[in-house]
């Protein structure tokens, strides 16, 4: 990382920002704080579900994971995949347990016992107090099976599949509103991968039929699997040209990791997320303009996270099809948590168009919550920025117009050292600033002009940073990395001043004084 050219050797880095209700973006959408449970690795089995665990309830759900899910502040949970859904037969996962078949899951090279399926998942969401978001299989299946699962899930008793749900123990319809029309259908790794033309037609016809059965749906068309796909943007344009009138959202997926040890670029990952969001917005609006449509397509960023994909070695033993093996169990450190905090800043600042998102995933698989079978559950480092942002981002999102020193990155060019966004909650009269110092060596003094808002005191200032950026939380040391009070924060004469340590994420809560 190069020091900003405007500073002398011993200068302290300074950045500034302004809080003003006139810089309103949009209301905070609770669905920004979604998560994802896929039948992958130990996310379901020994993740959310482990009968026999000392904390498990009568349905076999781990109580410790339920408690941590609530603490994380999750709003929606996408299910059951991911790549898994593109070969999934939802019928396998309902009805008497002893009649459920075991199947090979081609996506992750495992055996799916189908112990948990749709009804169990919905029951879990009620206990976790989250909204279910269901993905349907448009890889190996189509319109008929989409209508079947919709009838089973959402219709009142009186037709064959709705009656089957009642027989299976769920008298009331599940009332699922958000449905993803397939998963990453642009990816050649996807079972049933399609071209944009093939997928666009199928998604449009599926959506049309689903709405004929249930008008109260919010439908998500698959966008690109990531912004490096050769078809990125062209895919969205072609798919939306077919589906524009039938869907409400287009999906975005993005995972970040340090490449070749380049931490400077990694810390600026959300620059890529910003660009991706803005590219999809203009692409969607271009299609809307061509169709002369007054409608705006919203964005569902329904897979995002830090994922050490380069460490993922695939599925090594071709003959072996294990049940719920350890897969994608990344251990997150301090830098990863700072990056996750900054990705949330990006999502929030685009709240006018990104009104749904899901961190991938919830438990054990690239996850904020880890468990040991028969053992404890604990919070990874990335748990903390998510939980605090979900808890304190309330009211309206405000841009903060930061002015910051900059540094050069190999992947994203020249980027600011500071990134920040704020929220203002009229009801509680609380303003909250979320801020990241991306500098690897220098603290950053941030000064925020708050004269535009009726706030006069710092209610709480917490910072996540550590001298050892590789520190992680483990079963043995679950609280090695936690956010700590930042004693440097002070508010006087309408200005908040705070020192942000190098590689840090902070939440600064401001309100009225005594
Ligand atoms: O979240 C892990 C995988 O990443 C999902 O199954 C897939 O949709 C994406 O490629």
From TrEMBL:
Entry keywords, A to Z: Carbohydrate metabolism, Glycosidase, Hydrolase
InterPro entries documented for this protein: Alpha-L-AF_C, ASD1_cat, GH, Glyco_hydro_b
Gene3D superfamilies in the record: Glycosidases, Golgi alpha-mannosidase II
Enzyme Commission numbers on file: 3.2.1.55
Statement: the UniProt record of this protein carries the keyword Magnesium: no
Top EC class for this record: hydrolase
UniProt domain Alpha-L-arabinofuranosidase C-terminal: residue ranges: 302-504
Pfam family, one: Alpha-L-AF_C
Family under the similarity heading: Belongs to the glycosyl hydrolase 51 family.
Quaternary structure (record): Homohexamer; trimer of dimers.
Protein name per the record: non-reducing end alpha-L-arabinofuranosidase
């Amino acid at each position: 990382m190069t020091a900003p050219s405007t500073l002398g050797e011993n200068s302290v880095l300074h950045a500034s920002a302004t809080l003003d209700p006139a810089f309103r973006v949009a209301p905070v959408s609770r669905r920004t704080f979604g998560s994802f449970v896929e039948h992958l690795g130990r996310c379901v089995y020994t993740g959310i579900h482990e009968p026999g665990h000392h904390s498990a309830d009568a349905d076999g759900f781990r109580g410790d994971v339920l408690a941590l899910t609530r603490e994380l502040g999750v709003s929606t949970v996408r299910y059951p995949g991911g790549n898994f859904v593109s070969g999934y037969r939802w019928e396998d996962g309902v009805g008497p347990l002893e009649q459920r078949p075991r199947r090979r899951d081609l996506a992750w090279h495992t055996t799916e016992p189908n112990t948990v399926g749709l009804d169990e998942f919905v029951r879990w969401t009620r206990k976790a107090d989250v909204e279910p978001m269901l993905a349907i299989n448009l890889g190996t299946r189509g319109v008929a099976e989409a209508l079947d699962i919709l009838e089973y899930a959402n219709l009142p008793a009186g037709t064959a599949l709705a009656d089957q749900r009642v027989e299976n123990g769920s008298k009331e319809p599940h009332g699922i509103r958000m449905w993803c029309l397939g998963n990453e259908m642009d990816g050649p790794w996807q079972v049933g991968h399609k071209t944009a033309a093939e997928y666009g037609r199928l998604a449009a016809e599926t959506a049309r039929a689903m709405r004929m059965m249930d008008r109260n749906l919010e439908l998500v068309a698959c966008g690109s699997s990531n912004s490096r796909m050769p078809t990125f943007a062209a895919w969205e344009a072609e798919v939306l040209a077919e589906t524009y009138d039938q869907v409400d959202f287009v999906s975005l997926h993005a995972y970040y990791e340090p490449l070749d040890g380049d931490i400077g670029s990694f810390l600026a990952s959300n620059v890529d997320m910003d660009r991706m969001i803005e590219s999809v917005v203009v692409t969607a609006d271009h299609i809307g303009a061509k169709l002369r449509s007054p409608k705006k397509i919203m964005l569902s960023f329904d897979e995002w996270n830090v994922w050490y994909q380069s460490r993922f070695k695939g599925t090594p033993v071709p003959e072996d099809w294990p049940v719920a093996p350890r897969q994608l169990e990344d251990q997150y450190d301090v830098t990863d948590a700072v990056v996750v905090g900054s990705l949330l800043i990006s999502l929030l600042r685009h709240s006018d168009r990104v009104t749904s998102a899901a961190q991938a995933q919830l438990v054990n698989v690239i996850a904020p919550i880890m468990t040991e079978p028969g053992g404890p559950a604990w919070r990874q480092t990335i748990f903390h920025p998510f939980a605090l942002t979900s808890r304190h981002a309330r009211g309206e999102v405000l841009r903060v117009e930061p002015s910051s020193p900059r540094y050069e990155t190999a992947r994203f060019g020249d980027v600011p050292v500071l990134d920040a966004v704020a929220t203002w909650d009229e009801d509680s009269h609380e303003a909250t600033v979320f801020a990241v110092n991306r500098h690897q060596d220098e603290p950053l003094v941030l000064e925020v002009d708050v004269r535009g808002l009726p706030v006069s005191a710092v209610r709480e200032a917490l910072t996540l940073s550590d001298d050892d950026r590789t520190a992680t939380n483990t079963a043995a040391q679950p609280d090695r990395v936690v956010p700590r009070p930042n004693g440097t924060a002070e508010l006087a004469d309408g200005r908040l001043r705070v020192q942000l340590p190098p590689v840090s994420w902070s939440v600064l809560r401001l309100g009225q004084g005594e």
